[in-house]
Specification:
The chain has 305 residues and is of the alpha/beta class. It has 13 helices and eight strands.
């Protein structure tokens, strides 16, 4: 049975470090994982998520990532494989590969670009779930997929015994997490997928919120953990101070009209000593001005001395 306690409060979608020629640097990704473990900034690693730029990677590259990171970290920290893809066929191929390698849980995004109907979303997840034994987290991120997995569809999907929770991109539809909680059984877990919404997500249903899936924890994981611990200890004022302090850091990662913050997160991570590599085109590293703004903000929030 899926247990949110096993995966902890901070699930980090680890960046995929690409070399300047665009190749995946698997050794660097292992080093990033070691640094996150040493810092204590992650309770779980999620591989091949949005912050991991899965959408630019081939199926073979993603499966190799599952293999490399499982070999390096299985038994040391929980691992979740992001196995979503544009087609149900490829999603199933990736999910079966993760299952074969030894993953117990995968995260599956709704098909993107095709803008499937709610019935098509339902059929997609049912097809995958009924063909595998691993637990599945639905990944709802309409800002990228163009479709919202509705509370009614989540309620139907929760009837599948191995569809155990959902990651919700929370800021654009802040109260939908409450809809998901009200529409699903008590053992169905909701994860907040937006660093800006950690406190708001917890107060919608403490016992049903698994935690945050947090790309920002790769640059401020200590402060994010402190914020969550303060909130859960009833120190709401202290938690709110931390959230307000970190909020401009999250916003600076979207400067220049960027929707995906990963480009500037990687710039920030390199400043902090990670071998974070570079984005894969069409995404581009920060400009000189953008990088300067990121550096200034890291200093302001105390993440960089």
């Amino acid at each position: 049975m899926f247990s949110k306690d096993k995966y902890g409060k901070i699930l980090v979608p680890v960046v995929t470090p690409f070399k300047k020629n665009g190749d995946v640097d698997y050794d660097a990704q292992v080093r990033i994982g070691e640094m996150l473990l040493e810092k204590g900034w992650a309770d779980t690693f999620i591989l091949s998520g949005t912050t991991g730029e899965f959408f630019t990677m081939s199926t073979a590259e993603r499966i190799k990532m599952y293999e490399v990171m499982h070999k390096a970290f299985a038994g040391r920290i929980p691992l979740i494989a992001g196995t979503g893809a544009q087609s149900t066929r490829e999603t199933l191929e990736l999910t079966l590969a993760a299952q074969r390698i030894g993953y117990e849980t995968v995260m599956v995004v709704a098909p993107y670009y095709t803008r499937p109907s709610q019935k098509e979303i339902l059929t997609h997840f049912q097809t995958v779930a009924r063909a595998v034994k691993v637990d599945i987290l639905i990944y709802n991120i309409p800002i990228f997929t163009g479709v919202n997995t509705s509370p009614a569809m989540v309620a139907e999907l929760a009837k599948e015994p191995n569809i155990v929770g959902i990651k919700e991109e929370a800021e654009l539809n802040a109260k939908q997490m409450t809809d998901f909680i009200n529409a699903t059984p008590d053992d169905f877990i909701i994860y907040n997928g937006d660093d800006t919404m950690v406190l708001e997500s917890y107060v919608q249903g403490y016992e049903r919120i698994g935690g945050v899936i947090s790309g920002g924890s790769q640059v401020a994981g200590d402060q994010i953990r402190e914020m969550i611990e303060c909130l859960l200890a009833g120190k709401v004022r202290e938690a709110s101070v931390i959230q307000r302090r970190l909020f401009p850091l999250y916003r600076v990662m979207g400067q220049g009209g960027r929707t995906n913050p990963v480009c500037l997160i990687k710039d920030a991570m390199r400043m902090l000593g990670y071998p974070a590599g570079y984005p894969r085109q069409p995404l581009l590293p920060g400009t000189e001005e953008e990088v300067a703004n990121v550096r200034a903000m890291l200093i302001k929030v105390g993440a960089l001395k």
